[in-house]
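Milestone M4 deliverable, item 7.
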Amino acid sequence: MRVLTVRELTSHIKSLLENDRLLSGLWVKGEISNFKRAASGHVYFTLKDHFSCVRVVMFRSRARRLLFQPEDGMSVLVRGYISLYERDGQYQLYAEELEPDGAGALYAALEKLKSKLAAEGLFDRERKRKLPRFPRCIGLVTSPAGAAVRDMVNITRRRWPVARILLAPVTVQGENAPAEIARAIALVNKLAEVELIIVGRGGGSLEELWAFNTEVVARSIAASRIPVISAVGHETDFTIADLVADLRAPTPSAAAEMAVPDRLEVRRSVDAYCTRMRHHMRQCLAVYRQRLEYCTKKRVLVKPAAALCDQRRQTVDLLARHLRQGAAENLRALNSRLSLLTGRLHALSPLATMARGYSFTTGPDGGVLREAAQVQIGDPVTVHLYRGMLECTVRNKRESSN
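Output delivered:
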């Protein structure tokens, strides 16, 4: 009897599972639970139905190509193969593809992403920017093959030939499309000459347009410093890119018409402005001509010297009369004030008091004597009269106590 080690047993079972043709490439339908995305990028979850469950692993190289965000409770279809994880001794489904189960699930994933981005304000009208009226350079992010790019180029060149067109070629459907579109938008934003971006493709089914319903494309449009027109599919198609973009065009052809003006309409507008300008200039010239004719008939222009001399002569006469009147009035006022001040000064003058018999005496030092104590017996003093002075000597003095 042969005894196997645990490793030999698990290796044998793993070999049996991997060599089974049914288990090497199968589709399994179920509901996601315990969904986790590891830091390494690998995805782990359990796929279950009402009766059983199986562990599922999707490696990073496959997981990054997902066109939607899986979550618990979502019904999905998984394509992959069955193998055994030897360390735990459990069989697992190694997923290579993952897609929602039916169109209903796609719409559910779409609505969930729309709600998330709307809550962040990416659809708000306030963040929409105005498109340049006369763009000089336009970036096209679309597939280089197909009718959409040809229509946009032809319409742009016909309507506004001066605009340059820079094409950023991308795939517009498939697992690589979202990343390519996001990179192209970021690349065009690095070109200083580009003033407007058109992102889009022709019509298709929901699955074919799914790249424009992905979060990475939506965020790349929202992060663009350049205004973006979204032109995805036909008029009835509506994607998340349309909601995030600054302007949504119903078709790629309509996007080209929205992006640039029609040169014929611009020319007609310019011609109309020129006509209005000429008419306005003729009206202004007629008004100024009338004003000039009116002015030329004025006496000051017909005989400027006479008009100026007469006017200046009258002005001089008037000013001279005002000057004489003003001088006479000022002189009378000054004489009257002088008489008043003279009377006041005379009334206060000490000479007037002395004329009535009063005098004042100065001592030896020349100072005015006010008290007898200021001099001694024998000191010389001077008596000042209204007319003349008396030189005297003090022979006696009486001091008053008052």
